[in-house]
Amino acid sequence: MSNRGVFISLEGIEGCGKSTQAKILSDYMSELGYCVVQTREPGGTPVAEKIREVLLDPKNQDLTSRTELLLYLASRSQHVEQLIMPALKKGKIVICERFSDSTRAYQGYARGLDMDMIETLIRIATGNLEPDLTIILDMEVKEGLLRAERFKNYKDRLESENLDFHNKVRRGYLEIAKNNPNRIKVISAKGSIDDIHLRIRQYIDELLSNYKDKPN
Ligand code: TMP
């Protein structure tokens, strides 16, 4: 790791607590003196947020799997070029809720689209950018969906998928993690918010110890 910033992604099934943990992690790293950019996928820039609306709108039931894939990647392409890469080039820490592992888990393992095609398109959309560290917040699907429901009074297009779909997403994540043990760490998303934060912090502190200078 050289003079580039640090790219961290948080992943997991619906309701696993990514947003809460991303915020706490951003605050923690900011307090340590790092310049932190917190962002999310799909979204993170005005155009990408518009694509997000199309993707999550429950009215768009006729979206085909391939179109869905291309829209997620269109959103990522815009996000990487406009926000993530410029921040990393300035030596900032980027904390992103979801990135390419979501595409692998949802469009690959759950929708069943061809993985080679997905990997090719991911490379095009990201210019080969992968996170330095990915944390998967793992929990029971039923519990996650209940949690997601408690936080909002409607289900978006993806949340409306059946239990089988979400179980495939979870199994997909665990498989992806098994194949990328250096980059991806799976932690239990059960317990208190503070407990989960401390579990994440253990990996963050390890990652930061490789940086001699604070990036900002
Ligand atoms: P969320 O970020 O609020 O969880 O909503 C994003 C939804 O989009 C979530 O259901 C996961 C899904 N998704 C994909 O299916 N593929 C992707 O590449 C990304 C980034 C998200």
Keywords:
single chain; 5-stranded parallel sheet; binds thymidine-5'-phosphate; 216 residues; 13% strand; 54% helix; Rossmann fold; 5 strands; alpha/beta
Short note summarizing the structure:
This protein is α/β, with parallel strands linked by helices and 216 residues long. Helices cover 54% and strands 13% of the residues. Strands 2-3-1-4-5 form a five-stranded parallel β-sheet, with helices on both faces.
Structure explained in plain terms:
By secondary structure, the chain is α/β, with parallel strands linked by helices. It has one domain: P-loop containing nucleotide triphosphate hydrolases (Rossmann fold), CATH 3.40.50. It is built from eight helices and five strands. Strands 2-3-1-4-5 form a five-stranded parallel β-sheet, sandwiched between helices. The longest helix has 25 residues. The two termini are 15 Å apart. The mean pLDDT is 94. The protein binds thymidine-5'-phosphate. The site of thymidine-5'-phosphate (TMP) has 12 residues, from helix 4. The site of thymidine-5'-phosphate has 12 residues, from helix 4.
Widest beta sheet: strand line-up = 2-3-1-4-5
List the bound ligands. Answer: thymidine-5'-phosphate
| Mean pLDDT, all residues | 94
Number of helices: 8
At CATH level 2, the architecture is 3-Layer(aba) Sandwich
Q: List low-confidence stretches.
A: none
Q: Any idea of the CATH topology?
A: Rossmann fold
What is the highest CATH level, the class? Alpha Beta
- Give the DSSP E fraction (strand runs of 2 or more residues): 5-15%
DSSP strand tally? 5
Backbone structural class: alpha/beta
Question: Mind telling me the CATH superfamily name?
Answer: P-loop containing nucleotide triphosphate hydrolases
Q: Please tell me the total number of domains.
A: 1
Measured as a percent range, the helix fraction is: 40-55%
Main sheet makeup: 5 strands, parallel
